[in-house]
Specification:
It is a single chain. The protein is about 5% helix and about 30% strand. It has about 170 residues and is mainly beta. The protein has one domain. The strands form four sheets. Strands 3-2-4 form a three-stranded antiparallel sheet, with no helix packed on it. Strands 7-6-8 form a three-stranded antiparallel sheet, with helices on one face. A two-stranded antiparallel ribbon has the order 1-10. The longest helix is centred in the middle third of the chain and has 10 residues. The chain is globular. The termini are close together. The mean pLDDT is about 85.
Length: about 170
Amino acid sequence: MDIRTGLNNLAITSVTYTIGGSTVAQLTEASGVTNVGDSPVYLKSVGTASGPDLTFFNTAGAKVFNVNPELGTTGGVGVFDNGVTTPSNAGLSAYAAAVEGTSMDTDIRNFGYHDYLSPGPTDPAVADLDLQFAKAMNLTDYLVVTERWGNSSFQLLALAADGEPYVGANI
């Protein structure tokens, strides 16, 4: 499945966060940065126009495998975790651990980024990494993807336990 602006999206009608112990409901699209403090911003629920409200998030963790070695020499790829940046070109094992950390909670200030790639994009035929969730996804599950500026896309491919593409996966 290709995740691109305007494709394969579920319309969002509301989002509820917890910031500093307070619940905040957002009913309209934000313009610009809405929180610049040091407090985590935990996603609590996502209201949708045509499907279920998403209220349970899989935070059981994940493991990263097969990190593309090109990321070790590519600037502009990394993980931002509430003020701490772990770039891929500073060490692939630290980068992989940071990617795994993004699956441990719902803090939306903990995310991976691919921005201003230098010396340029990696080979598009080679995946950046394999991410194996500790809890299997069901047919009724959704993948919540956030994008700061709407300028990135990626491909999601279901893999079986042996790392090979899952034939007939419903994604």
